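Issue: ligand-bound run for 5'-deoxyadenosine - logging full I/O for the record.

Environment: standard queue, default settings, no custom constraints.

Inputs:
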Amino acid sequence: MREVLHNITEEELGKQHQFIEKVKALSAGETRFAMIQTYGCQQNEADSDRMRGMLTNMGFEMTDEREKADVILFNTCAVREHAELKVFGNIGALKHLKNKRPELVIVLCGCMMQQQHRIDEIMKKYPHIDMVFGTHTFYKLPEMLYDVLTNRDRHVEITETATPIIEDMPVRRESSFQAWVTVMYGCNNFCSYCVVPYVRGRERSRHFDSIVEEVKTLASQGYKEITLLGQNVNSYGKDLDEGKDFSDLLTALNALPGDFIIRFMTSHPKDATKKLMDTMASCEKVENHLHLPIQSGSNRILKAMNRRYTREQYLELVKYARSVMPDIAFTSDIIVGFPGETEEDFMDTVSLIKEVEYDGLFTFIYSKRRRTPAAEMEGQVPQKEKQDRLSRLMETQNEISKARGEHLLGSIQRVLVEGVSKTDSDFMTGRTSGGRLVHFKTDEDLTGTFANVKIIEARAWSTTGELMK
Ligand code: 5AD
Ligand code: SF4
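Outputs:
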């Protein structure tokens, strides 16, 4: 129990609020711009919302243009090497901008910065980076920024120990109708391939009442979609002694007034219970979608991954969920090319995705991560083989996704309209309860509202519909 330290102290919060005012005073009425580029998962997006909130309160206007920005912040991801390489590419490209405008402040933060070897690399090879901090200290952004703006010294602030939970920091969400709400931070699972427990620390749940209060406020402000976030939402509450679990939280949020929908991610199959499925089935605001990452269809590989469930247990869960929610859409994460994965193991994954009939899959090539047990395992799979398995998996899933989409033909779906279609500006895009994209024509801008749409065409990843008046 970490009750004493559970939330950040009023004193620390007050100090940061003072620094917010101090930074604001520095600009002496002039408009200054800040830009945040976020990599990785929704948790990073949620952290960026907080940093955007702090920057706005410090008097910055947000921009997407690097040339215009006085502060550029990269919120980084460490889950796969590819994400890290992208960050290095981007900060390398900023060198010339910094040469032209030495007063530009470049900040690196997030998961990648919780790794000592990355910090060493940045200190040595990227002298134009002004500020570096990890996942546990981002609430100190006002103080750190003040320091850099007034001393122009490089500032590095990393701690390995997870800081307590931060409530009451400013937050500025990019959307006015979709909101991320973190319910817990960190992860205790130590899947053998994953760096998250090392860079985000152990599980810390937010107090039940704080979450309910936040969602209540969001709903009253007109937010239409609330997505609850945690690396493993199903272990919500285990570190508190409030006697409440994630299903209880869903029930309480479902009872709040307002026309809004609730989504959540991620659920670890080892902790997903029948109670969760029953709760989803009985809560009308909770959408008909479960993201339940299986990672592999082979029991041998699941064991080596330290996932702590079998293929059979997973399939049992899916079966139960479908018995109480016949229309539920499943999505999953899958890693191909985990060390020691044979063609036979891979074919177990292929047969599993056919059996479950996922609506969609997030597929990843195994990426070796420092400090994780899998990095030291024998039988690393050659890159060419990994790529080949990935393409075969995606091909199989495309057919399944298309067939799942075809199930919807002729049905009327209530969708939350997210905006103008990215591929055809004559269309607007919404998302069904199961999370599938629907493009449809309309004369009115319906962004941020619910619309009823009849599905008339289905493809692997999206559908086309007709607006029902
Ligand atoms: N290599 C490839 N994919 C990974 N993931 C996590 N760690 C790795 C890794 N080392 C994937 C998992 C997880 C998702 C968020 O990222 O599938 O569910
Ligand atoms: Fe990583 Fe496993 Fe935790 Fe997910 S549950 S964040 S894959 S260690």
